[in-house]
């Protein structure tokens, strides 16, 4: 390169750099250099491939092909060497590879995990990197995480989780060209150290106790041996499904779900007064007082709303488990707010999707969103050291004494001292 050519290259590069244009994309100052570097590297790979053995088998060069590749620096076309037997497998730019830079693939997967559509991702990549990427290629890139999704779904679990919330979300999924409504089951747990963890995601046609039984069995097969407290909505048969797999688990039904279901059958003119009386039940200082208030509720409203009162009485044991604990723990377990909060964050990502093309497209997006959400779960639950002490006093040997002392902030001696007291 002459001095004049070098000066022109430097001037062009500076102008493009200052204007924010790609230096390596179409028309970029450095594009010819990158193109030349890649082509020379491919030629060197071909020379290495056509060794003495290959040539003795009759293999030799067979002209060149053309390929347009995309990278974080833009798109450009390269000449690719070919051999007669088509056995050449380059390492730098592999056959059928159209995305050169892995970091661009990572950016695409990251944008997809934030809920961006393929159309929006394509526009963003075009604007940022002067690179056109089709929806087919974007789909192929996001499909790279499918092995990660499957590995995550089948990963081993801890033997014990102190609290587990179980709930489902509902989505539209295309099946054989038709839109179907499917349930996405999510299980959120708190481990011995007090940290949140999504234990699994499962898809079914509808939410029901029979499928929950399959979900719980899968959790057991992945190493989960015991759950101290399971918090669920009021789905019929849910408690029996849990106890059939984890018989020692205490099942706490969601108070909020019970209240919502009750208000469906209360006349609007009575709802305010009824709720005032109902609060005396679920906000009582202990179970005995709550049961007295429940009797008072029956005396006042039983004849007018027998179905509502009967529902509270029938589900009372599962609704009242939280009275065994102090107020901070009660707030954690007497509703499914924890998993519903997780669902709200997931919906922020999935709300732009009208219908998913298949089950895996739904799982891919929820998995990526979950991975982003879990990055924020860097600390145990508030006052976990006090909570784990109460759990140890209540559940004893079901909690191994090998808990993470630094995370919980307590020692084995402190726990045993509390147990004696």
Automatic annotation (TrEMBL):
UniProt-recorded name of the protein: Mutator family transposase
GO molecular function (one): DNA binding
Function description: Required for the transposition of the insertion element.
Methyltransferase recorded as keyword: no
Region (Disordered): 49-89
Biased amino acid composition, Basic residues: 61-70
Protein transport is among the record's keywords: no
NCBIfam families the record matches: transpos_IS256
Family: Belongs to the transposase mutator family.
Keywords, comma-separated and alphabetical: DNA recombination, DNA-binding, Transposable element, Transposition
Native organism: Christiangramia fulva
Pfam families: Transposase_mut
A biological-process GO annotation: DNA transposition
